[in-house]
UniProtKB/TrEMBL annotation:
<protein>
    <recommendedName>
        <fullName>Flavin reductase like domain-containing protein</fullName>
    </recommendedName>
</protein>
<dbReference type="GO" id="GO:0042602">
    <property type="term" value="F:riboflavin reductase (NADPH) activity"/>
</dbReference>
<comment type="similarity">
    <text>Belongs to the non-flavoprotein flavin reductase family.</text>
</comment>
<dbReference type="InterPro" id="IPR012349">
    <property type="entry name" value="Split_barrel_FMN-bd"/>
</dbReference>
<dbReference type="GO" id="GO:0010181">
    <property type="term" value="F:FMN binding"/>
</dbReference>
<dbReference type="InterPro" id="IPR002563">
    <property type="entry name" value="Flavin_Rdtase-like_dom"/>
</dbReference>
<dbReference type="InterPro" id="IPR050268">
    <property type="entry name" value="NADH-dep_flavin_reductase"/>
</dbReference>
<feature type="domain" description="Flavin reductase like">
    <location>
        <begin position="23"/>
        <end position="156"/>
    </location>
</feature>
<dbReference type="Pfam" id="PF01613">
    <property type="entry name" value="Flavin_Reduct"/>
</dbReference>
<keyword id="KW-0560">Oxidoreductase</keyword>
């Protein structure tokens, strides 16, 4: 059977990182993220309703959107196929914390610091609306990881 139209779309691959005031933190893999206002002022992030990331994002109201580089393929299994409820995803993970105490991945192309301003129901995901506070480019020389790249490498299906 032919692939359905939305499967032709490509997406950049990110990790959403967050931390609560009492020190719990998490990181996932997320591709359904887009800018939604001129000048890069707002972003929307679709987060799975059952995942630990959404639970912590709702508590903390802050997150970083880390734009992953092609060389970070090991993070797919580590952050995107396990839950932070069961494993410490930060063990040996290259990261620092920003001035808010929110982690960011130091080997990513860069990261966007966000403040949550609202959310909307979206089926099995929740769309989290964010104001962009700051954008930081860490490694302009690196190539952005995309869903098509992961498919070519056999790391995702569909
Ligand atoms: C390529 C890829 C793309 C993904 N995109 C999303 C996404 O856009 N939103 C989301 O909530 N989860 C997405 N996931 C799934 C989560 O990363 C995954 O469920 C993760 O284990 C959640 O961990 P947590 O329970 O620690 O939050 C994606 C996973 C992969 C491998």
């Amino acid at each position: 059977m032919a692939r359905r139209l939305l499967k032709y779309k490509n997406y950049d691959i990110h990790s959403i990182t967050t931390a609560t005031p009492d020190g719990r933190r998490n990181a996932n893999i997320a591709m359904w993220i887009t800018q939604t206002a001129m000048g890069g002022k707002m972003l929307c992030v679709a987060l799975d309703k059952t995942d630990y990331t959404l639970e912590l994002v709702k508590e903390s109201g802050i997150l970083n959107v880390n734009l992953l580089a092609e060389e970070q393929t090991k993070l797919i299994a580590r952050l995107g196929r396990k839950s932070g409820r069961d494993t410490d995803k930060f063990k040996n993970l290259a990261c620092e914390t920003d001035e808010r105490g929110c982690p960011y991945l130091t080997e990513a192309v860069g990261y966007v610091q966000c403040q949550v301003t609202g959310s909307a129901d979206s089926g099995d995901h929740e769309v989290v609306v964010c104001e962009v506070l700051k954008q930081t480019v860490l490694h302009p020389e690196k190539k952005v990881m995309t869903h098509h790249f992961l498919r070519e490498k056999g790391l995702v299906r569909g």
